[in-house]
Amino acid sequence: MDAHQTEPDVSRPPAPWFQPLLRCPADRGKLQLDGPVLRCGSCGTEFPVVQGRPVLIDDETSLFSRSEFLEGRHDAPGGERRNARIRSMLRRLLPSTDANLKAGQSYRLLSSLLTEINPRARVLMVGAGDGGTGASPLTAGNTFELLRSDVFVGPSVDLVCDAHALPFEDGSFDGVVIQAVLEHLIDPARCVAEIHRVLRPDGLVFAETPFMQQVHMGAYDFTRYTVVGHRRLFRQFERIDDGACCGPGMALAWAWRYFLCSFTRGPTTHRIATAIARLTSFWLVWFDRFLIDRPAAQDAASGVYFIGRRATTPIADREIVASYRGAIGH
Ligand SMILES: [Zn+2]
After folding, report:
1. pLDDT of 229 higher than 80
2. What's the CA-to-centroid distance between 1 and ligand 1, angstroms?
């Protein structure tokens, strides 16, 4: 299918299992398929279906609007220009300064916990249009009912929605994954409250969020979390596991790259500085294998993670402070 098709298209309707769970993002009214649109039975708002993906965005509260998706302004990059493709190939030839050392382990733990509560668990992956780092223990084998949402229309996206207003009935999912997304939200706490709402009473959440990372995705980058700060964000959940997922070596490599890039003024010198930085700092991430489980690494981590089970009462702030396991004061 042409990635830049902009006409409403219902040839790929929502997968049957999640269609009854869909709700209006504005007032949670039930949605009815009405020709090429989904119509809210409560407020009457019409939501388009673009390339088979429902676009359940509330224009009143979101940074995005439904018309932008109809116009193809948020399609996945499919028709990249030749120069962009060459640049992307060259980037892949450079050594990486990214190393998520815990994602695979976290997804394995999540998958085994999900199997205990529902062998055919329904899992919402928020902002998972890129597939998710290390997600294969969850996504391979067709074990679970997965639903991937994002704010663009692409081959790995089942549904377009704003993570601040998840368009689902309460208690719809056994698990929710939110990986490298919360930093891009204006109000992460609102999103976590939504995750809590759409999970069943003993449902599971897995989140990964940057700590010591520089700005990425430009204007759409708002906040960072320590392990303890991340724990407080998920205070309505019982902790199963948390800690650093990307280590101090990655944080240092990123700091070096952004330091060099801060001398540049245009895209060409920025790209050259990025290449120099990656060629001179890739070895730093090798240290993360030795550092990632050390207490002091939590104070210097590039990224943090949390796996938890939905609870009815929040953990007290006093307990959150007492849960600190870093190096300072120990
Ligand atoms: Zn409505």
Report:
1. yes
2. 30
Could you give the percent of the chain with pLDDT greater than 90? 80
Kindly calculate the radius of gyration of the chain based on its CA atoms and give it in whole angstroms.
21
Residue 215 has which token pair?
Answer: 């700005």
Strand order in the sheet with 173-179: 31-34, 37-40, 46-50, 53-56, 159-161, 145-150, 122-126, 173-179, 199-210, 303-310, 237-246
Domain architecture of the chain: domains with CATH = 84-322 (3.40.50.150)
Residue 314: Cβ-neighbour burial (10 angstroms; 0-12, 13-18, 19+): middle
Residue 201, exposed/middle/buried by CB under 10 A (0-12, 13-18, 19+)? exposed
CA–CA separation, 41 and 84 (whole Å): 44
Q: How many CA atoms lie within 13 A of 141 on its CB side?
A: 10
- Determine contact, residues 245/103, Cβ cutoff 8 Å: yes
pLDDT at 1: 33
Q: For 92-103, how does the pLDDT look when each residue is reduced to its tens digit (9 = 90+)?
A: 889 999 999 999
Cα 84 to middle of ligand 1, angstroms: 40
At 11, is the pLDDT very low, low, confident or very high (cuts 50, 70, 90)? very low
46 Cα: distance to centroid of ligand 1 (angstroms): 9
**Residue 164 CA to ligand 1 centre (angstroms):** 16
Cα separation, 36 vs 70, in Å, equals 12
The pTM assigned to this predicted structure is 0.92
pLDDT in tens, 137-195: 999 988 999 999 999 998 889 999 999 999 999 999 999 999 999 999 999 999 999 99
CA of 7 to the centre of ligand 1 (A): 23
**If you measure from the C-alpha of residue 17 to the centroid of ligand 1, how many angstroms do you get, rounded to a whole number?**
21
Residue 10 has pLDDT above 50, yes or no: no
Spacing, Cα 44 to ligand 1 middle (Å): 6
CA of 166 to the centre of ligand 1 (A): 13
Give me the residues near ligand 1 (ion), CB cutoff below 5 Å.
24, 26-27, 29, 40, 42-43, 45
